Amino acid sequence: MERWRDCIAIMKREFVSVPGLSVEEIESDSAFCNPRIAVSWRAKVFPVSAEVIAKKLAGGRPRIVLHDYWQGLQRIVVDPTNLTKVEAEIVGRSIVHAISEPFVPPAAPPHEDFEDVAGAWQVFIDFLHGSAVHAFVLLQEGQDTTGKHIGTDVSSNCRGQIVGPKLKLVSQLPGDPLALDYEFEGTLRDGILTGVVYLGASAAKYSGLTFRRQFGRASWRATRTRANHTDGVKCASRR
Q1: Per-residue CA distances from 189 to 134, 198, 221 (Å)
Q2: Is the pLDDT of residue 175 over 60?
Q3: Helix 85-100 with 50-58: angle, nearest 10 deg
Q4: Rounded distance, CA 53 to CA 88, Å?
Q5: For 63-79, what is the mean pLDDT?
């Protein structure tokens, strides 16, 4: 415990030295035995997401791996369990550098290059065991896609983007005790969408990629139904 607190103090010194970073020390509790430290920032000050930071640190040298299931949009949490005090200083400086260095956004794809996916779709999902029929009702503005994902018993909003024929769409259906996460990736060809969907479950407190994809993936395909509504579409689950 003494070493963990020393590591947290070292990282905290690095974080508080940068205007615009907020620091929170998280005490151990019944769910986790050691203290941690969180650093967060506003997108207006540092226009970079926690997911980008985590990928940058994981791909750097030395490689730094963060538990992404604690991530927020602009918030990361560092677990000092396996750190020495020397390593804690390296981690703190690396995180500060990754957040504060000028952010170069990826080149935007050409806006004229996209397919039309607006309307209603019947969605067939084939799991490792069983299958389900869901539905999409999609709206489209250029490459940006929004709409409704209708599951077997519940529905929720979805959002994504289509570049050329390739669609990415994410949604989170309500669930108890955890919401169910879907990340659809598919290609439109001859009027049919086909691809893979990553499956998971998460809570607001634990919403990183690890939880959002913890159940692996399934295959899916979708066909158009009557435009702009899902009349006649029956959502169901089969084992």
Answers
A1: 20, 21, 11
A2: yes
A3: 130
A4: 17
A5: 88
